[in-house]
Write a structure and sequence with these properties.
Rossmann fold, alpha/beta, 354 residues, 15 helices, seven-stranded parallel sheet, 12 strands, elongated
């Protein structure tokens, strides 16, 4: 059998898989630091039995050109983003995935963005690096040598006053979507002594209260939260889930954080409320169109922190996902039902076949 791998897999996991495959073909990111183009993928996939993937687009056409593919193992928590699950299911191809691989690291990043925006960490870094807060002799009379405060010639630029932020203790964090990542964000926020509220119609009140979260309706969340953090999946019903109406419910002192997907938010409406100072600021890792164009108006705002969709970019992710997909493939090859299956109907049909 042949295995195609287009993402990063731990050496020890590759060694485990070598016991089952005559050939392990490594392409894409680990070899050329980019995702395979559609035609390149078709060339690689036509004679393989199993495929470990991250970003390549696996379309119905690619699957049609594949003659013996039995299993696709995605190292992502949401393989639907780049795999045609319906087409795979029709062809009897099992699709595995890696749930919660990013929960911890995205939650960490979310809290990091929250702090970067509210305590002006990103802005302070920028002002120092662009020489807007530097001078030859920063020491001024009136400050003890052992307690030097960063003072500039222009009192209006005194960073201790200009960059005064807000603390988190006692503040309300509103989480839209209390899934795996949302729950991890909640646990971190509780450790910061924040009051956590959330809206998620699929989570029971008991489960929310178990981790210190109070469930509320969506409007209440936007009205009461000092910080709103988005953690829902992109689905037809969540497109532009956060629009003008929700954003205008927020407090003028509130901050908006999005590490989920840009399509969940009406970006034009978000820009307007930031531009008009109807909310205090935002921290965004995802956007409607990525990468941002140089002409994007968000780049002109001074009350927004922007990062290039890197909340899940962490070595720990690959370690965890590598173990998950390797275990899934081993189980499948041993005749054991894999734990994390996107399309269980494929397994059920095979089990029902006499």
């Amino acid at each position: 059998m042949k295995l195609l791998v287009t993402t990063f897999i731990k050496g020890e996991d590759l060694e485990k898989l070598k016991k089952y495959f005559d050939e392990i073909r490594i392409r894409g990111l680990p070899r050329i630091s980019r995702v395979l183009e559609p035609e390149e993928l078709i060339q690689e996939i036509h004679d393989i039995d199993m495929f470990i993937v991250e970003f390549e687009e696996i379309t119905e056409e690619a699957l049609t050109r594949s003659k013996q593919l039995k299993l696709i193992a995605s190292v992502r928590a949401g393989p639907q983003a780049n795999i045609d699950i319906e087409a795979a299911t029709r062809r009897g191809i099992l699709v595995l995935y890696s749930p919660s691989r990013s929960s911890d690291v995205v939650a960490d990043f979310t809290i990091g963005l929250l702090l970067a925006a509210t305590r002006y960490i990103a802005k302070g870094h920028f002002l120092v690096k662009t020489f807007q807060l530097t001078e030859v002799n920063p020491r001024r009379p009136g400050f003890a040598p052992r307690d030097i405060v960063w003072v500039t010639n222009n009192p209006e630029n005194f960073p201790y006053l200009k960059l005064k932020g807000i603390g988190l203790t006692g503040k309300a964090l509103g989480i839209l979507g209390l899934g795996a990542i949302g729950q991890e964000v909640a646990l971190r926020a509780v450790a910061f002594k924040m009051n956590v509220i959330a809206h998620d119609p699929y989570v029971s009140r008991e489960n929310a209260e178990r981790i210190g979260v109070r469930l509320v309706d969506k409007d209440t969340l936007f009205r009461q939260a000092d910080f709103v953090s988005i953690h829902v999946k992109v689905e037809p019903k969540t497109l532009a889930l956060v629009g003008k109406r929700e954003l205008e419910l927020m407090k003028p002192t509130a901050f908006f954080i999005n590490t989920a997907r840009g399509a969940i938010v009406d970006q034009k409406a978000l820009y307007r409320v930031l531009k008009e100072r109807r909310i205090a600021g935002a921290a965004l890792d995802v956007f409607e169109n990525e990468p941002l164009k140089p002409s994007d108006p968000l780049l002109d705002l001074d009350n927004v922190v922007l990062t290039p969709h890197i909340a899940g970019a962490c070595y720990d992710n690959y370690e965890k996902a590598s173990s998950i997909v390797t275990r899934g493939i081993e189980d499948y090859l041993k005749g054991v039902r894999p734990q994390h299956v996107v399309n269980p109907d494929v397994v059920d049909k095979k089990e029902d076949t006499p």
